[in-house]
Amino acid sequence: MTTPLRLALATLAATLSPLAFAHASLVESFPAKGQILTGSPAEIHLTFNEHVEPRFCRIKLVSDAGKNFDADRPSADKTRPNAIVAAVPVLKPGTYSARWTAVGSDGHKTHGDFSFTIAK
User: Fold this and answer.
1) How many structural domains is the chain composed of?
2) Which of 6, 64, 91, 110 could form a disulfide with 95 if both were Cys (CB 3.0 to 4.6 A apart)?
3) pTM higher than 0.85, yes or no?
């Protein structure tokens, strides 16, 4: 293989490799991480750095007492292309952990969590 061809292939690999390893990352949420709300949110909104497949996404809420609350199956947020939204049941005052799983356009599953509080 000639040196110019090797250089071109190395440059192409270096350029594409970050894309090959990129996964959907949460960039914004409502409620926001650590947010204190005055009432129960009707929905959870999650915005990612790339398109996610809503049918493969899940959101579970866990109270500080350890009780699980499943959100509805997320759907695409029609106002933001990289976002999903899910209705949640009415939540009592307390701190909740929102645990999410998402599958990005690259087919890889990612997950994370954040907490928010509903004031008494």
Assistant:
1) 1
2) 64
3) no
